[in-house]
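Box 3.1 — From sequence to structure: Acyl-CoA desaturase
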Amino acid sequence: MAKINSRPLSAEELDRFGEELDALRARTLATRGQDDANYIRKVAAGVRWLGLSGRVLLMAGAILGGTLLPVLLWPLCILGAVVLGLSKILENMELGHNVMHGQYDWMGDPALQGRTYEWDIVGTSDNWRKTHNYSHHTWTNVRGMDDDIGYGLLRIFPEQRWKPYYLIQPAVAVVFAVLFEWGVAMQDLRIGHWVKGKMTGSTLWKLSVPVIRKAGKQMLKDYVIFPLLAGPFFLPVLLGNVVANVIRNIWTYTIIFCGHFTADAEVFPKECVENESRGHWYLRQLRGSSNLTGGWWMDLWSGNLSRQIEHHFYPDVPANRYAAMAVEVREICARYGQHYNTGSLPKQFGTVIWRILRHAFPSKPAPVRPLMAAG
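Predicted structure (token representation):
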């Protein structure tokens, strides 16, 4: 693990730290307006046009390649799958995820309301709002409270109890990346509780019904309706839809895992959140989160989760503001002697891979670094 140069803060410093970060949020919210509305509507339009283009390319590749111009079959289908995958990434990351945080509720647009938006993924938005918006954002990286720590499948931190099962977690991690949307869909079903006898089959079924219904609609759309539109040339369209979903799954897995599981990210015990002040909450979010460099391109295609620190500080602020806010956030962190965890995608994801490989084997917890100064 990298050496982290952060110091514990006194209660007074924590209060000031929280007040400065709260003030930045208030100033930013006060300037929300037409530019933010225009931005998210452009993103929504981009999702639609990329999705349409991808599906047209898939259809053209399948039909033309199967009849008049066989040479166009795979080039057009591959291009179509990539473009459709980009549409799904943009919809899940920059549109759906941020809308569901309520970032654009103030616009009054029924299509952009956080409590009713339904996204293009097999998991339900209601489950995501519970497991992500509430549990993960409230208890970020707190063991036993944040289910995103390893998603119940992986041992990411040495503080997690080791079991022989974790020896195969490098292979499990690869499968999980490919099928990531299904992991998100099943996260709140608590299947492990049912296996251990802590949940009845009827309760599991009740929880599963909305997921089964949503997954059925997604599979019908991607794997039945659109492929059948190509008639006898349905197979390339079907494969293109599968590839598009896998592209989206691997990318979102990579970005999300870089957000909280890099070498410098920390995990916390439950006692850490007892009587937690606002400043203490900010500090825990900071030390449990990781940013990615890469400029506007990375910001857009990661849904601004490249600014994971700012997102965890301000989940209800329009995400297109994070880049500007990050300048002041970083300056505040520096003044209070706090490490601001950021790096390139290859560097950050490399440390995530290291964690997955290293903690597949028994390992001892790292020394606990206090958030608050003694006394």
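Summary of the box: The mean pLDDT is 93.
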